[in-house]
Specification:
single chain; alpha+beta; Peptide Methionine Sulfoxide Reductase, Chain A; 6-stranded mixed beta sheet; 5 helices
């Protein structure tokens, strides 16, 4: 198994997308990229901890590869919105890829460069690509939030 971590706005929707993807064996939502140890949702929502809402994806690379996970990431949020996604505003909603290996760094940078070069977006892509940091699992009520409520997305 391999691990990938993505921040694409509110973690509920992106988790559900990955959770229902063939080859993904587990997902957990949580917080990464900040300064506080074991932050709470309330603390992260203040925007003062530096954490992003993220989904950590455990996947079988024999079934789905990292590039396919990157496809899902870029297709399911707007990578040109700085510190927001739709109505959700704040650094905790930033577009970020936390990379776990040199291969992931190379693939994420290549994908971002390819999207910039394609001209698909009229504005700059602001997605950060940074080394993985401590992952703090979110509170239980956030785990599989949409699935628990019979929803498949939270798109507005």
């Amino acid at each position: 198994m391999a691990v990938a971590t993505f921040g694409a706005g509110c973690f509920w929707g992106i988790e559900e997308t990955y959770r229902t993807t063939a080859g993904v064996t587990d997902t957990k939502v949580g917080y990464m990229g900040g300064t506080n140890s074991n932050p709470t949702y309330r603390e992260v929502c203040t925007g003062t901890t530096g954490h992003a809402e993220v989904v950590q994806v455990l996947y079988n690379p024999e079934i789905i590869d990292y590039n396919a996970l990157l496809d899902i990431f870029f297709a399911n949020h707007n990578p040109t919105e700085l510190n927001r996604q739709g109505p959700d505003v704040g650094t905790q909603y930033r577009s970020v890829i936390f990379v776990h290996s040199d291969d992931q760094i190379a693939e994420a940078q290549q994908r971002k460069a390819s999207l910039i070069e394609s001209g698909q977006y009229k504005r700059d892509i602001v997605t950060e690509i940074v080394p993985v940091m401590a992952f703090w699992e979110a509170e239980d009520y956030h785990q599989q939030y949409l699935a628990k409520r019979g929803a498949s997305s939270c798109h507005f």
